[in-house]
Amino acid sequence: MLAKVEGLKIIAVAGPMAAGKNYICSKLQAEGWAAVDADLLVHDAIELVKDKILETFIPYAESQNIKLTNPDGSIDRHALGRLLFSFPELLKIQESIVYPIITKQIENFIDGHDKTIINATVLYKTPEILSRCEKILFVTAPFFTRLRRARRRDNLPLKQILKRFHAQRNLLKEYQKSGIPVEIINNA
Question: Residue 171, Cβ neighbours under 10 Å: how many?
C-alpha cells in the first residue's frame, strides 16, 4: 500500500506534471479503486466546446502565429497549451469554459462508484469537487526526474515544459490551504 486510504471513499491524487500521478492511481486501482483522470476529461471537454474555444482564442493565436486546429479540424491541444501557458489570463478564460463540463463529469463518476480516485493536477480550481475529497495524495518527484519523464512522454519543446513546471510551482501550497489532509508521496 502506497498510502493510508482505508475507510475512505473519495481521494484526490494531485501533483505537478510528470510526478507520477498515473502510476500512483494504477497502484490504487489494483486495490479496487475506480479512477477518473481529469486531464483526459479536459481533452474531451475541449472538443465538446471546440467552437467556443476557437471563437475565443483564434485572435490571440493568430497574433502569436499559432494554429489551433489539426488537419482533421480537432483542437491541437499542444498549440492551445502553448498559447494558454504563455498568457495566464487566457488560461483562466479557458478554465471558465471547460471546468463546468468537467465538474459535472466527475460528479457523475463519483456517484457511480463506491471508492473514487480523482487524478488531477489542479483540482483545487474546482472547489466543489475538491470539497468532496477526504484526502489528497500529493505526488512529487525531483525536478530532473520530472523533466526527463515529461520530455519522453509528452514530446513537447523544453521551453513549453518549463513554462508548465513554472505555472505549477505552488501546487502543494494550494492543496494545503484546502483544509483536507494531504499525504505527500515522493515518486522518485
Answer: 20
pLDDT higher at 27 or 167: 27
Which three cell numbers, joined as nine digits, stand for 36? 477518473
Q: How many residues does the chain have?
A: 188
Distance of CA 147 to the CA centre of its chain: 17
Sign of CA dihedral 71, 76, 78, 82: positive
What does the pLDDT look like over 138-152, one tens digit per residue?
999 999 999 999 999
Mind listing the pLDDT tens digit for each residue in 38-64?
A: 989 998 999 999 999 999 999 999 999
| pTM confidence score | 0.87
**DSSP per position, the chain:** --S--TT-SEEEEE-STTSSHHHHHHHHHTTT-EEEEHHHHHHHHHHHTHHHHHHHHHHHHHHTT---B-TTSSB-HHHHHHHHHH-HHHHHHHHHHHHHHHHHHHHHHHHT-SSEEEE-TTGGG-HHHHTT-SEEEEEE--HHHHHHHHHHHH---HHHHHHHHHHTTTHHHHHHTT-S-EEEEE--
Q: Measured between alpha carbons, how far apart are the two ends of the chain, in Å?
A: 17
CA angle 13, 127, 44 (to 5 degrees): 65
